[in-house]
Amino acid sequence: MSYLLLAIAGLWMADGLALLVAPLQTVALVRQALSASPSHATWSGVTIAAGLVLLLQASELTYQGLWMVAGLAMIVKGGFFLLSDDDTRHAVLTWSLSRDAVDYRFLGLGLCTLSLLLIHASGWL
Fold this sequence. Notes:
By secondary structure, the protein is mostly helical. It has helices spanning 2-21, 23-36, 41-57, 64-83, 86-96, 101-121. It is built from 6 helices and no strands. The longest helix has 21 residues, at 101-121.
C-alpha cells in the first residue's frame, strides 16, 4: 500500500511543479486534453480510488486528520464529476480553468506541500 501512497504523492508533486513553473501552459494543456477526450468517468474513478486509499491508510500515517480530510475531499470531488450533469460539470470546469496564474501557483504550492507531507508520513523521507 505504501507504493500506492507514493504514486499519489508523485502525481501531486508532478501536478504541483507544473502549476508552479508554467501555470497558464499547464491549464492550456488540460483544456486541450478535455476538449480532445471529454470522458471524465475514468479520471473520476481514479480520483475516488486514490481517495479511498488515502482514507483507508490514514490511520497508519502521521497527520491522520489531514489524510482523512484529503481522502474524503478526493472522493467527493470524484463523485461530483462522476454523478453531475454535463451543464454543471462544464460550468465548474470553466470556472476552474479560467483563474489567474497566481491562483494556479498557490494550488501548485499546496499540491507540492501535500506531496512532501505524504512522502514523510509514509516513511519515505
